[in-house]
Amino acid sequence: MDYFAYTAKKTKDSTLVIHDSGKIPCRPTCIRYSAFLFQDQPPVLSASLPSPPITPHVPTILPSLSLPSPSVLRRRFSNPSHTIRSPRLHVLLVDDNSINLQILSRMLSTHMSDVFEHIELVKSGVKALDVLKRRPFDLILMDIDMPILNGVETTRQIRSSSSSSILPHNRDIPIVAVTTNDSDDWRQLYTEVGMNGCISKPILLNDLKSSLSSILDLDLIHSPYTPE
């Protein structure tokens, strides 16, 4: 019995075993997901998923930093200049792993379909910048460890002053890191480059709803969303 089959057998509920492109230690990530979403198509476990190279743009060792207070974080994350077209939102998912994209997209489209009208998937920071130049979005969910242009550098380019003419509709868009790199030091780095939050992998539905509710100032906890 290979590792993936053993992991699936040991897990009590429906589980997808996927490779995350995170830093050391490299290990499969189990994302627990409701069984009813896969009534006709049970999860497929694959042992052949490639592990992309770790990009050198994000420092391996970060200095010891203290997080700002919650009130400071809320002010930093609010992005008042970006207008959200609630409750029918357009979201851009950025991850170099196709299965990660499919799972996150399924979670949004199944449990928050009344909020997210359009979900677009891209597999690199470079492609994300290209898409953002052409049309507006309300939210970006960004993987961190991607080859060529990682999530931190992609965010820096989106937030840079030079992007105001290139990305007139998306420079101040809420950006949320979706990653295994979720320590306090990493979260501080995300704040410094202009990200609006961090969702840890493996992604739990309640955590996803709670984080997005806070960042977008919408009630996603009580699904479906009902406008006031």
TrEMBL record:
Residues 90-216 form the Response regulatory domain. Pfam families: Response_reg. The modification 4-aspartylphosphate is found at D143. Gene3D superfamilies: 3.40.50.2300. It comes from the Eukaryota. Keywords: Phosphoprotein. The keyword Glycosyltransferase does not apply. InterPro entries: 2C_system_His_kinase, CheY-like_superfamily, Sig_transdc_resp-reg_receiver. GO terms for biological process: phosphorelay signal transduction system. This is Response regulatory domain-containing protein.
